[in-house]
Amino acid sequence: MNPFIIETHGLSYSFGKHQVLHDLELRVPKGAIFGFLGPNGAGKSTTIRILLGLLPVPKGQVRVHGQDLTEHRLDILRRTGSLIEMPTLYRHLSGYDNLEMHRRMVQAPQSRIAEVLQIVGLTKDAPRKTKEYSLGMSQRLGIALALLSEPELLVLDEPTNGLDPSGIREVRELIVRLNRDFGKTIFLSSHLLSEIEKCATEVAIIDKGTTLYQGSLQQLYQGTFQSNVLQLETSNNAIAHKLLTDHAYQLLPQQDDVLAVQVQDRQQVAKINRFLIVNGLEVYRLSTHTQNLEELFLNITNRDSATVPMSESTPVLKP
């Protein structure tokens, strides 16, 4: 049984002479909240348009729900819901009437309207005209529209764009609940890396149309880029700096009289502590800092070396 709900193989795309995607490889596991990340111009929007059948697949292969997109486009779209930034709503109509119009187009049962309103928390506000909705309510109604056909896959592009902190939290909690309670696979693109960090289980980072990293957040945090930083304060930081440098430890720029050393694991922290004490130094401070997703993202996308080919069991990354 295929464990992936989205797969791309050697996906390339050009606008005229400008190539946007270069042999892009993606594997989105079924049941995941999949964070799709990349700087502006990385090719995220083009990839999403291809996945939704809005652009052709000129080179490479795209499989969604186990089917080839070029051969089964309509069937794939029936099983896929989407919200691209802002929903298109008829502002003079109520939330209910907007859902009713869309329900007729996707041929969903009448009872589905009440179900999706309850899921997104808009049952009481359904009779109101959508021009009276807050931005957060409009986004949740957009997700309700995407849910009408009971899709297995939701593609959400910048669903929290422009929302205040309260609205961002509402949409984030809804995304988590759709995945946890309703089994939806969520393909989520966002510039808010802190939000991806709070809800995603898998991430892909692309830049210049190429996959730089793909795998679980846990794999990314657990040393993919030696992400742990040990912060040290001793009785003589100058001597400590020289000792550590002479023994091939990687020291980072010093801030506020605190030494920063790149470490791989807890065992190395203990080894450094013993080493400094044996050499006559007192250790006043010993704490580790793990880089967050934003720091790792900047680390990965600022690298210029070649990518490592992806297998189904190995994350893609730029070493």
From TrEMBL:
Keyword Ribonucleoprotein among record annotations: no
Record SMART domains: AAA (SM00382)
Top-rank lineage group of the source organism: Bacteria
GO MF term list: ATP binding; ATP hydrolysis activity
Record's keyword terms, sorted: ATP-binding, Nucleotide-binding, Transport
Keyword Thylakoid: no
Positions of the ABC transporter domain: 6-233
Annotated PROSITE patterns: ABC_TRANSPORTER_1, ABC_TRANSPORTER_2
Coiled-coil region: none
Annotated InterPro entries: AAA+_ATPase, ABC_transporter-like_ATP-bd, ABC_transporter-like_CS, P-loop_NTPase
Family membership: Belongs to the ABC transporter superfamily.
Protein name: ABC-2 type transport system ATP-binding protein
Originating organism: Pontibacter chinhatensis
